[in-house]
Amino acid sequence: MKEEKEVYDKVRRTMVTEGVTEKKGGVAFGLTFVSEEAPKMPPRRLMELKKEDPEKWRENQGKTLARKQMLAQQKREEARIQKQIEKAHKEMERLEKYVNLGVD
């Protein structure tokens, strides 16, 4: 986090030419570029202006947990009902065989 802030501050500085070096075959130099627009606000994760309220966080976590538990309960109930329906269909198929045999 601290490193990101340092990098962000470095990028915001004006353009600078540093250490121009002439060597055989060309010139080497270092540049730092900055937009000419007004500096933007640092990314939100770098700003520590707003502290998160633990009570609000607990309340949200409680609501989320309750919702997840309710959905899980509904899924279990649906699965139980589906199994009962499948058992009933199998039992009806089994009984229909005996009914059909008796009619012939």
Oligomeric state of shown chains: single chain
**Overall number of strands:** 2
Q: Secondary-structure element sequence? A: HEEH
End-to-end CA span: 83 Å
What does the overall shape look like?
Answer: elongated
Radius of gyration: 35 Å
Share of helix, binned:
55-70%
Largest sheet: 2 strands, antiparallel
Number of domains: 2
Helix/strand structural class: alpha+beta
> In order across it, which strands form the biggest sheet?
1-2
**Percentage of residues in DSSP E strands:** 5-15%
Number of helices: 2
Keywords: Coiled coil
Summarize the structure in words:
This protein is α+β, with helices and mostly antiparallel strands and 104 residues long. The protein folds into two domains: 1-50, no CATH class; 51-104. 59% of the residues lie in helices and 14% in strands. It contains two helices and two strands; from the N terminus they run αββα. The chain has a two-stranded antiparallel ribbon with strand order 1-2. β1 (16-23) and β2 (26-32) form a beta hairpin. The longest helix is centred in the C-terminal third of the chain and has 50 residues, at 54-103. The N and C termini lie far apart (83 Å). The mean pLDDT is 77. Residues 71-98 form a coiled coil. Residues 45-61 have a biased composition (Basic and acidic residues). Residues 42-61 are annotated as: Disordered. Keywords: Coiled coil.
Q: What is shown here, in short?
A:
The protein has about 100 residues and is of the alpha+beta class. Helices cover about 60% and strands about 15% of the residues. The chain is elongated, with a radius of gyration of 35 Å.
